[in-house]
TrEMBL record, chains A, B:
Gene source species: Methanolacinia petrolearia (strain DSM 11571 / OCM 486 / SEBR 4847) (Methanoplanus petrolearius)
Listed PANTHER family: GEPHYRIN, MOLYBDOPTERIN BIOSYNTHESIS PROTEIN
Domain annotation MoaB/Mog: ranges: 186-323
Gene Ontology CC terms, in alphabetical order: cytosol
Listed name of the protein: Molybdenum cofactor synthesis domain protein
Protein keywords: Molybdenum cofactor biosynthesis
Example GO biological process: Mo-molybdopterin cofactor biosynthetic process
Amino acid sequence: MKSSFLSLIRVDEAVDLAKSIAPAMPPERVLLDDALGRVLSEDVRSDIDIPGFDRSWKDGYAVFAADTTNATDSIPSMLKLKGRIDMGAGEKMSLSRGECFNIPTGGQMPDGADAVVMVEYTDEVGGDVLVKRPVAVGENVVKKGEDFPEGGVVFGRGEVLSASDLGALAAIGYYEVPVMKKPVVGIISTGIEIVPVDKKPKVGEVRDVNSYLCSAFVRKQGGIPLHLGIVRDNEEEMISLIRSGVDKCDLILISGGSSKDIRDITARVLYTEGEVLAHGVMLAPGKPTIIAKVKDTPVIGIPGHPAATYMVLSVIVRHLLVAMAGFSDTMKSVRKARLVTNISSEKGREEYVRIKLVAENEAMPLFGKSGLLNTIVESDGVIKIPAGREGLEAGEEVEVFLW
Amino acid sequence: MKSSFLSLIRVDEAVDLAKSIAPAMPPERVLLDDALGRVLSEDVRSDIDIPGFDRSWKDGYAVFAADTTNATDSIPSMLKLKGRIDMGAGEKMSLSRGECFNIPTGGQMPDGADAVVMVEYTDEVGGDVLVKRPVAVGENVVKKGEDFPEGGVVFGRGEVLSASDLGALAAIGYYEVPVMKKPVVGIISTGIEIVPVDKKPKVGEVRDVNSYLCSAFVRKQGGIPLHLGIVRDNEEEMISLIRSGVDKCDLILISGGSSKDIRDITARVLYTEGEVLAHGVMLAPGKPTIIAKVKDTPVIGIPGHPAATYMVLSVIVRHLLVAMAGFSDTMKSVRKARLVTNISSEKGREEYVRIKLVAENEAMPLFGKSGLLNTIVESDGVIKIPAGREGLEAGEEVEVFLW
């Protein structure tokens, strides 16, 4: 076994490396009702003009705008009421100068009419309508195809579908939606001290926290977690889990035990069973990260401190999952804030510091021990201190990468 | 039928009213793996001290801190190596002055030892260890119970569970998690022009957009949407859907057709079948909102313009769902930004304006027609113009409520 642990790579190099081995997810079709948060696998286009006809956007009267010029409360324009337009009637009316139709919101504009006067500015008197305000051509009318024109691309491949997007997909007829398959992510926990969550740990043992950090993180990022198992210290078992895992999974995450010996077993197995592309990242906590490939399936070895696990998930694995899912990371996960205290940092080394957002978008660094779970539970995200800086100052604006 | 449509209430009154009729969700237990985003129904406590023993937080040597005072590279402290501590061994070692144990990260501290010297600052020479830096008492040691003490409340009732929270729940032994049940939300679309999504609309017809806006929104807010059906113009059908719906659902959303006639049918049915608490809200778009109760089940009548539907969902229904789910709305859904242009507004009326976030947290108002879907698809959220203001100015800091 040759260890390249000492040649640490930078976080951005690790991210690029991880992305370079991300398998693309094949497309599938899901029901519109199940498409929230999914990623479009192809451009979607409208099969119809929306609206399909010139529609009124208000309750009122469809008119020739020119017939209302100079209309006022005291000298209204008087138009002949030619009829009432019903919703969904399908039959198209037509209008001549000096006439108007009563029209509901959403009603189809009659031929000739080019504007709608809101009912508030009218009085119906017998067979006539008094219009007390002028309207401009096009006023209160939504033109055919103004919302989405037939054949136009409504969303491009890679769009992450929001609730309002699903409304638009309904409008353009996507009862089924073409999306990327969710990646299946196998999860292995290692460490001779690890016991399942439903067991009470004896002295020297700890419960399997990392499997759940990984599975919840995968789910949050739109993947399907698959628990492959806990390996205490048996190398054969690890090999067999990895071999069967690569056939079922698009990605495997192995969170190591916290001892160096166990980490060595994970590394040794990855060196013999696959190809180790990087072993060690300039990330604190999170240095002993392994990026490997077994039979074309990316395998990420993650250090076993829960806080280090979460950092590696958020800073490296996240980008891998995003690349697999085929979307660009959204702006909503980054937020500007002001530092409330100075943070010192070793120059020449990129550092990530967990922070908590406090009132008025202020970022408070949490300097907990990296092994403690409560520091990740309390934090809202991390900020990056670039390698070229010796620290950040209170009052400085920082970008918070929300967990 | 008595209509109270003309007595409009303010948005905050509508929100309070909706919250006042929100039924509380009963608790249930779900597997830890399924608990992401769920809301705790009770306080959860740790059943054990975490860590369960004083642990080393680094690879190195467990020592008496006092034995390292004044240690330097040139004049190291020499300690006798008493042995090596293995992970998960369970057997507790003990240490005398002048001795040390080799200890891995996570290893159990021997009795007597009060600090760990990192391996980087030591040399092993035969049976001795040269320590080249002093350590303080407690350095590189995580004390028993320091992360979570036995019996301590780790999360309170109402906590929305994040990925890192699930890691902490694993640590404290919650293989099953007590959460609030998800509310089942029945959805009815009305309007004689409405056709199902998989049909191609004829002239005068539109596809059922609002059912999907509602269902996706409900899902996003942690509820379970249930499509009750489309009612074109049949009052009996509406009554029967509502009657069967209130038995199956914790909340019913009825999105009206866009015409006044149809809206009247919805209102008339709600006036006869239940109790209408409010009819009309000072919200644009979104004025013709109905807040009602049928047999103790809240029923919200929502206007049929998709953009108005989405506004009412985001500004009113959201709070109702949050109240039902039993959590406080999170800070992540609000974000500060600067307006890029002036917005004028009618004084005395609270207004909500859709905005798009542009580079560097700037908010660009979108002044689209409220009936257009593309304005909600393009927007990231809304800002509120208080009733007392005549508008907002370019450069002003605003709070964006993200969709």
